[in-house]
Amino acid sequence: MKTENPYQPSEFFHTLANANLKPSNRTLWKAYILAPAVAPIAFVGIVFLVGFLSLSLGANVNEASILVLPVLALTVGVVACYLVAGVIGMPIAFYLRRINLLNAYSIHGAAFCWAALFTSACAFYMVDGNWSELPLALCYVGLGVIPPVLLSGTAFWLLLRLFSRRESRVAMGMHG
Length: 176
Hints:
Blueprint: H1 11-14, H2 25-34, H3 38-56, H4 63-98, H5 104-127, H6 134-175
Helix pairs in contact: 2-4, 2-6, 3-4, 3-6, 4-5, 5-6
């Protein structure tokens, strides 16, 4: 009889975060279809929650903004997220899969690097030569760009894992 140490993680959980995935093209595209919408939908939820709490607590809130911001997030934000994920994210994901480095760390690292690069470009454009305002511009733009990009990267990774597990279960069921 084999005794297991309850304080030591099992083999299954040992490689959850750093396991390299080799998902099929179909699995990658399925994750792409869902992941970019996560950040705008989360933003809409946050706006509604903050708006509802503010109104409940009697704060002075512009009710129109509670409707306009979600509409903008669901139109412009969703389109922008899909465009960026398709043009930048998917080629990176296919490349990482090809070199067997598609894992949580590489996805989040690539997402952070691209978000930081975009943040820097926007901040440089915003300050227009007034370099003393650059740190503040980097903070403002970075707070608006980096968290949603990392959230989408997390959603992509979790969906990849889910779809890959399902795909492998189906393949095992057919062949075993």
